[in-house]
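Predict the assembly for these two chains.
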Amino acid sequence: GQNIDQPTEMTATEGAIVQINCTYQTSGFNGLFWYQQHAGEAPTFLSYNVLDGLEEKGRFSSFLSRSKGYSYLLLKELQMKDSASYLCAVLDSNYQLIWGAGTKLIIKP
Amino acid sequence: GAVVSQHPSWVICKSGTSVKIECRSLDFQATTMFWYRQFPKQSLMLMATSNEGSKATYEQGVEKDKFLINHASLTLSTLTVTSAHPEDSSFYICSARETSEFYEQYFGPGTRLTVT
């Protein structure tokens, strides 16, 4: 079956760095997405990786290793507004998004 | 660009009634639209995939006679929850994929449905 694993919850301090990991086993791979979702709101796009390596976009970076079925989202200089759930999703061979359960990130002052 | 709207943003209805939720792509053509449901503290659950002009494909366990999906144009898809029950109370989110792209989905803001 298809499976995406990410930690349920993480806590970090304002100004610090946090890494959210995601491992996946899917039927085919056409890319991996990271989305941010604040409570009661729809997900918003953060990043898309289809090739191995690190993609940097401001305070957020996303890494992919296809051979290991592994990705991480790195958030730097954490701000209180970064408190949200972070969803990892893989586009499978049918171009269907397979979603992880999400990681709730709690930022403390 | 790539804006998706949903209407209404929230709705309260009585048990046994039907509710229609609209999803529109405002500045692009969406061959494919997706409907998700999300219960509190849970991840997104895909309900169905709809392609313009054809019948929707429902995920296992989703009743197609209860959740009616229509995708009559390249910019509009509707989800009708028929004979709603309190357990249908949830956050319903649509997303749309642009015709020329095969990967990115653009999400609507979601509709909070409460059935009393």
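The longest strand of chain B covers residues 30-38. The mean pLDDT of chain B is 91.
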